[in-house]
Amino acid sequence: SLLKMRRSLAIFAALALVAPTTAFMPTMAPSHRGATRGMDLQMSSSQSPSVSRRQALGVAAALAAGLVAMPLRDATAADAPKGPFLLPTLPYDYKALEPAIDEATMKFHHDKHFNAYATNLNKALEGKEVSSIVDLQKGAIKAGGAIRNNGGGYYNHGMFFESMTSPAKSGAPSPALAKAIDASFGSMDEMKAKFNDAAAKRFGSGWAWLGVTPDGKLAITSTPNQDNPLMEGAEGDKMIPFLGLDVWEHAYYLKYQNLRPSYIKEWWTVVNWAKVSEYYEKYASQGKPVTWG
């Protein structure tokens, strides 16, 4: 119902109100990552909100009570990040992934979160020589928190959004990818079970990945926060990822709340196997990092 949706959106809308024309930035304090799963966004330290926390919470309460309407809107030119890394347009409608992923989540996730990574990555790279987003991954951890979190977030989200489609168009893996899955896991069902387990057990925020290891086999791993297996020094198995699932709470909480396994299960219905197979055959199986876009 509209009332239920309004209540679910309350805290997100309050955050948006605090800085409606600026981007949100992922928390970067490593000592608090495990404890901040329930609220994985904070304002960039360089931003000064014009609305106090008390006022924002007041708006959230009003939204939950149905006293104030906060309409969702598409990203506009004013929201666009300035710099070499732009916000890609979704290759499908915001509603296309329903019922697996709802329209409201898609708008917040793409127009706010993904946009924030692009915006903050451009800021972090001001005055520096800019390489491609793929080349940036390898040394991202050594480059520091701003590039690690925002560069990883930008690359990860680009692959994530592009590798999904409507349930009717999900399809199946190509013969080459299906053969590789069977060779490495025994069956598609076994691969999904291992992937689901890795995604569900990733503590706090992070990603689950299917990729090609240096020996040419497929494997599954997970990484914390916005890290990915392309980064030198990243947690998890070394591989070239070609399918990733975002398990940060902003990716699913509006619809699934604390039921992450339900989100993971439904996500399989919107995997764009044609695109994922392309990633595998054109890039990962050839030992090359995926270039999306």
Provide a short characterization of the protein structure:
The chain is mainly alpha-helical and 293 residues long.
Q: Can you lay out the helices and strands and say which pair or pack?
A:
Layout: H1 2-18, E1 24-26, E2 41-43, H2 53-65, H3 103-124, H4 133-138, H5 140-143, H6 145-162, H7 175-185, H8 188-201, E3 206-212, E4 218-224, E5 240-246, H9 253-256, H10 260-267, H11 273-283
Antiparallel strand pairs: 1-2, 3-4, 3-5
E-strand count? 5
Average of pLDDT: 81
* Form type: globular
List the secondary-structure elements in sequence, H or E: HEEHHHHHHHEEEHHH
Describe the structure.
By secondary structure, the protein is mainly alpha-helical. 44% of the residues lie in helices and 9% in strands. It has helices at 2-18, 53-65, 103-124, 133-138, 140-143, 145-162, 175-185, 188-201, 253-256, 260-267, 273-283, and strands at residues 24-26, 41-43, 206-212, 218-224, 240-246. A three-stranded antiparallel sheet has the order 4-3-5. β3 (206-212) and β4 form a beta hairpin. The longest helix is centred in the middle third of the chain and has 22 residues, at 103-124. The protein is globular and about 50 Å long. The two termini are 36 Å apart. The relative contact order is 0.13. The model is unreliable at 1-6 and 9-78 (pLDDT under 50).
